[in-house]
Amino acid sequence: MLFTGHFFLLYFFPIFMLLYLPLSKKIRLSNVIIIIFSLLFYASFGTQNLSVLIVPLFLNYVVGMSLPIPGNKERKILLALSILGNVGILVYYKYFNFLLGNLLFFLPKAPLIPIMQQHASFIIPVGVSFIIFQGVSYLVDVYRKKTPPEKNFIRFATYASIFPHLIAGPIVRYSQIKGELSKRKITSLDIFNGFKYFTVGLFFKVAIADQLFTVENLLTQNTTQ
Questions:
Q1: Nearest partner of 121 among 146, 99, 145, judged by Cα
Q2: Contact 159, 53 (CB under 8 A)
Q3: Residue numbers in the chain where pLDDT is lower than 70
Q4: How far apart are CA 37 and CA 16, in angstroms?
Q5: Is the Cβ–Cβ distance between 128 and 93 less than 8 Å?
Q6: CB 142 within 8 A of CB 149
């Protein structure tokens, strides 16, 4: 599901707004709606890749809660292990096939190769880099005491999964939106400005960027022929 697709524009986003706006003053319920729709949005790219969103979410929540432990050495070890865990997920999905191809070249008869091929991911989950690096930025900020760890799981899950920046960024630091996770007020002017920016962005994407891409693609094909 793309932001410029018919399903998102005609069904997904209008239904989300119809459910979200009446409950916007009830922070917990509106956060739950954001989480549910974010999971549905990401699942539209393949339910098999939901773990890319869910596993780092739980990992970073638990580690973030644990980082205020006493002892600088223990905190460094915990941070390093959590970053390795996050980056490991990224490496698996983005570079596992590359590494497996090299192993097949150098060790074509290795007994573990067939097993590894069965678990290979041939499709890179959309937005995996944004998901991982946003999680890492949160852990680093908590480690450096730039922001306290989020104790409320619903609020943290909202921050980690919110769908407007899930697949294309930008990476949002927790400190930038932590206040709005627990208290926010939406006015008619906010709604108007939101639709204005969305409409302008949609126009630039469909009417200009997509058309330039088509021209660039045609020029590239003519050059290579």
A1: 99
A2: no
A3: 97-123, 222-225
A4: 7
A5: yes
A6: yes
Residue with tokens 């773990």: 51
Structure tokens at 88: 């490991």
Give me the half-sphere count of Cα atoms (radius 13 Å) on the Cβ side of residue 219.
Answer: 6
Q: Which of 64, 43, 45, 19 is nearest to 157 (CA)?
A: 64
**Dihedral in degrees, nearest 10, Cα atoms 156, 161, 163, 167:** 140
pLDDT reported for residue 61: 94
- Give the span between the Cα atoms of 105 and 88, in whole angstroms: 23
Spatial contact of 40 and 16, defined as CB atoms under 8 Å apart = no
At position 56, the amino acid (one-letter code) is P
Task: Tokens 């090299």: give the residue.
Answer: 102
At 169 the three-state DSSP class reads: coil
Cβ 86 vs Cβ 136: under 8 Å: yes
Taking only Cα atoms into account, the Rg of the chain, rounded to an integer number of angstroms, comes to: 21
pLDDT tens digits, one per residue of 76-91 = 899 999 999 998 888 8
